[in-house]
Structures are given as C-alpha cells and as structure tokens.
Write a structure and sequence with these properties.
By secondary structure, the protein is mainly alpha-helical. About 65% of the residues lie in helices and about 0% in strands. InterPro entries: TerB-like (IPR029024).
Length: about 140
Amino acid sequence: MLEKPIVIKLIKILVATAWLDGKIQPEEQKYLQKVAQEAGVTDDHELKPLLYGLRPVSKEECYEWVGDYLGSHPTAEACQQLLEELSGLIYSDGDVDAEEAKLLLQVEQLNPQNADPHPVSDSVKSVTQAIQQLYQRWVQN
C-alpha cells in the first residue's frame, strides 16, 4: 500500500483528470469517493473540497501534479501504476474525453520502457491507438 502523502497526490491527480472535460461526471464522483474511502483519506483537509467538486481544477494544475507525482525521471512502474489509476477513473463514466486521452498518451510517453526517438504525433489516430492499448491492459489486469 502507498504512503498517505503519495495517495493524496494520486487522488488529486485523479480529481484533476476528472475536471479535464470541464466537469466531474456523477460516475467519476462515485469512483473518486470510493478510492478515497478505500485509502482512508476522505477527511483529509486538502482533498475534501476537491472530492466534493467544491473547487475546480485547471488543466495546468493537472499536468503540474502529474509532473510532481512522477518526478523528472519517472520509473516504468510509476508510469504504469498512474496509467492504471487514470484508466480506472476515465473509464468509470464510459466516455473518454479528448483531453483525458491526451493525458493518458502523455503519461504513456513518459514511461522509459516506451522511449521512442520519434515523438508520437498528436493526431487522432495516435491518441485512439494509445487509448485502445491502455484499455486492453486495464481490462487484462
């Protein structure tokens, strides 16, 4: 099990991801509260306003929190864990927003095991392929 400060960072990222499409969907809200409850952090003063949608989170904050969570040299394990957590939230409402897909793709690209000297283009095809791969991994786990 992760340490409490790391769990709080992770849940903040999940909340921020839910805000990427402009609002938290009811299914995402339930998912976030379930994750926080299982981790025992529902009463955390920093998380409470985020968990209940009392404070929106900007896209910039989301990417900043992801960078803070993974650090400057992320491990493959950390990237994979974050992808799994993000996928659980993103697929909880049955709809993958373009911004959510971009976040998944960016985290996938940060994974040192996926290092490619040729950057993946931002085309819809690339994003769609990345989502399909992540979804397949998520379903298999």
